[in-house]
Amino acid sequence: MSSTRIEQLIDNVQAAFDRRPTEIETGLDVEGAAILQLRKACRLLAGAEALQNASYYTLVIEASFVAIERTVEFRLLERGTMQPDDLPGTHPGVYREAAAAGVFGESMAADLADLWRDHRSKTYYQDGLASAARAEAMYELATEIHRYITGRSRNGHECLCEETTQ
User: Fold this and answer.
1) At what angle do helices 57-78 and 33-53 cross, to 10 degrees?
2) What SS3 class is residue 39?
3) Which of 118, 119, 141, 164 makes a 20 to 30 Å CA pair with 91?
């Protein structure tokens, strides 16, 4: 592998993103930013479940946190609290916005932000080690938050989770 090869691959990736997409992932070709975020969360949860079965615990923890964030963003967009260009640019910002919009209570939002700061970052960047129990607990939390939010949504029927787990 050479730097020339890497530069060529960067150009290939840029070109792929510049072209109009074809063969779009099933379920993600939707109208509206809210449903797109919801369905990305569904896919992240399905991926996390598959990764749990493969014992890739770091990825399960990462995907579970991201699934929570996509689910919250779905709700913020659905309620008109935020527009696609205004979504929080930070992980803790998602939880703050969720509390401000009443998606969660402030205490729960603070607990989620603490989990992200104390455990996700350590698992991903520092010395925290992923384990089966940690990954399973995180996946269960993400799944429950997803169900809680979609259960209170007028567009909860757009959720793909039942479809992807059958």
Assistant:
1) 160
2) helix
3) 164
What gap in Å lies between CA 55 and CA 65, rounded to an integer?
Answer: 17
Give 45-55 pLDDT, tens digit per residue: 999 999 999 99
User: Can you read off the two tokens belonging to residue 92?
Assistant: 């803790």
Mean pLDDT of 126-142: 90
Alpha helix positions (H), 25-165: 33-53, 57-78, 91-100, 106-115, 121-125, 132-151, 161-165
Tokens found for residue 154: 């007028």
Angle subtended at Cα 99 by Cα 49 and Cα 117, rounded to the nearest 5 degrees = 55
Q: Are 72 and 103 in contact (CB under 8 A)?
A: yes
Query: For a pLDDT cut of 70, what percent of the chain falls above it?
Result: 97
